Every structure is written in C-alpha cells, then in structure tokens.
Amino acid sequence: MIARQGSRVGHIERRTQAPRREPGKQRVRVDDLATTSVDQEGVIVHQFQEPPVPARHLYTVEEAKRLLSLSRSVIYEQLRAGRLGSVKQGRARLIPAKAIQQYVDLLISEAEVTGYGHAA
Predict the structure, then answer these.
(1) N or C: which end of the chain has fewer CB within 10 A?
(2) Would the pTM of this model clear 0.70, i.e. be above it?
(3) 69-96 pLDDT, tens digit each
(4) Which helix (H) or strand (E) holds 67?
(5) How does 7-19 read in b/e, with b if 16+ C-beta sit within 10 Å?
C-alpha cells in the first residue's frame, strides 16, 4: 500500500497502487459500504458510504435526517411546528420510529388531498 502525503500536515490519503486493468473495468464494487475506483494513473481510490440506519425504536436527528432525506434545519422546523414528534433523553433529542411513520403518513395524506402524484 502506497500512502501519499496530502496538503495538510499529518493528513494521509488512502490510495494504493493498482495492478494494470483493462480500460473497460474502471470501477470495482468491494462491498455494500465501500466502492473502489481506479483513476487515470492506475491508483485505487476507496470511497466509503454512510452506513445504513439500523431499525430500532428511537433515532437521533442525524439518523432521522437520513431516513427522511431531509436537511437538519427542516427536521428542526418540523419538530417546532409539531408535525414531527420527539422526546428528550438527558440532553439528546430523539425521534421515535412511530413519529417518523406518522410524519410520512401525514405527508402522504397531504399529497392525496392536493392531488399531487395522481395522473390527470
């Protein structure tokens, strides 16, 4: 494994020298969480995706953000408006799985009332 020094002191990019590959084989799927690609110089670059959100009863705001595909500020707007429920455990703001499902159901019912998503 060859490590290259980045522009910041102490920062090391995760790159390795790749064996010569055919031009048609530029991307190799390593597993569900990492994708490996080969750049023009034949250097392998690993790109890691965020891990999936585990199924459970309470979610952090970050996890709810990923589940609902919303920004952090929109999550807090919905919490303040009372459209998305939450609980506090100590200093942590947690969103119950039931509240997430109720919020999705609310969005679906609003879409049905406005006729959004239905063919004309």
Answers:
(1) C
(2) no
(3) 999 999 999 999 999 999 999 999 999 9
(4) helix 61-68
(5) eeeeeeeebeebe
